[in-house]
Write a structure and sequence with these properties.
Blueprint (H helix, E strand, L loop, with lengths): L1 H21 L19 H12 L2 E9 L4 E7 L2 E15 L9 E8 L2 E7 L6 H10 L6
Antiparallel strand pairs: 1-3, 2-3, 3-4, 4-5
Length: 140
């Protein structure tokens, strides 16, 4: 019985690893050859994006953790290559209370924010993805 349980556990683990690897874009895809134009004005792009998405944009306190670094992210339509910027954002919610310092991953391609992901301190896979992407830039 223990042998069957170990075999089943190993099969599940291997399937999980293979499934995770299937989501990584190939390095030789045409899109991987270019990350788009480097966003020299990334702070202005992010600030403009936040003006249209945050509930209280005038209250936002933003700490930039890094300058744009090339990479890729997954969006609804698939993998997108571009530039990642990680931030800590604290702003007000609908009830004028602080939301707290939230790790945020912003992805820019060709002078446009294509992905804005916030880790809200939950234990979700979504939070883990943001934390993993921003780990090299996060304060220790």
């Amino acid at each position: 019985m223990k042998t069957k349980l170990k075999a089943a556990s190993a099969a599940v683990l291997i399937a999980g690893v293979l499934t995770g690897c299937a989501n990584v874009p190939a390095k030789n895809t045409p899109e991987a050859a270019t990350y788009g134009t480097y966003p020299n004005d990334y702070k202005a792009l992010i600030d403009a994006y936040q003006q249209t998405t945050l509930k209280e944009p005038s209250s936002a306190v933003v700490q930039y953790l890094n300058e744009p670094t090339s990479g890729w992210t997954r969006v609804a339509s698939g993998a997108v290559f571009g530039y990642r910027v990680c931030l800590i954002v604290n702003t007000k919610n609908s009830y004028t209370g602080d939301v707290g310092n939230l790790l945020t991953e912003v992805f820019i391609r060709n002078e446009k924010v294509v992905s804005y992901n916030v880790a809200d301190h939950s234990s979700s896979a979504y939070d883990a993805a943001v934390q993993s992407a921003c780990e090299p830039a996060s304060p220790k």
